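Task 17 of the worksheet. Students: predict the tertiary structure of the chain below and write it out as C-alpha cells. Keep your answer in the requested format; marks are given for formatting as well as content.
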Amino acid sequence: MRKRIAYKESHNAIDISLLKIPTLINPSDATLITYTVEGSIFSDDDINDINNITGNSKLKKRIEAIYQKGATIIYNDYESQTFKNNLDIIDSALPQILAEVVLLYFSSSRISSSNDLIRKIAEKNPLNSKHEDLYKYYKAKYTRLLESSALGMYPAKPYDDSNDAKGYVVVKDDGDIVCYSFYDREMVRKHLFDNTKMDTPSSEKDGRKDYCKLFRANDGRLLIQLNFQIRWK
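Model answer:
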C-alpha cells in the first residue's frame, strides 16, 4: 500500500486528492544499498563498538562514528538487482544519486526533505556534472524517481515505465466512487518534490534484514548497508 497522487478534473477546477497512505517508497530487503568503508583501519573491536551503538538516532550515530575514524563511505551496489535495474530504466544516473541521497540523510541530523537533500547533493555534485544549474539537474532526476514510485514502481518488481498508471478509481469511506486522471504532470512532480522526505525505517523489524552494521566481505572489504523509506511530510 502507498499514498497516491491523483488529479480530479471538475469543469475548470483541478483538485488534488491524497489517499491516506503514508509512504511513497516502502523499505524492504530490496531497498538495501551497500557501501564500502575505506581510508581507515577498523579492528574487530572497532566494528563491534560501532555496531553496538544504541539509543536515540543510533543509526546516524554509527555513521558519525565511522567518519570520526577518518574513513570515507562510498556507494558500491544495491542488494536487489531488480531495484537497481528499475532505477536505471527511470534514469541511468539514479542508482548513484539515490545512494548519495540516502548516505547524506544518514550523515546529517536535520536534513530530510527532498528539497533540502537535493540542494546538498547539488553542492556535492557526486556525478561531477558540468550542468550550469546543478540543483535543477539533480532535482529533475530525483523527481522522476518520486513520480515513478507514485505511479507504480515497486523496488522488488521489474518496472516498465511505459505501463505507468494514467489514473485511479477510488472507493471513498462513504461508498462514493471517484475517478481520477492525471492532468498536469508538472504539477504532480512539484507536489511530490515539495511534500516528501526521507525517513529511517526500523533496523530490527521481523522479516527484514538488519542494516547499518559494519561487516567484512569475503574479499576482506569493510561494508555497510543502509535502508530507507520516502514518505509524506
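Marker's comment: Residues 41 and 71 are 8 Å apart (CA to CA). Residues 5-232 form one domain.
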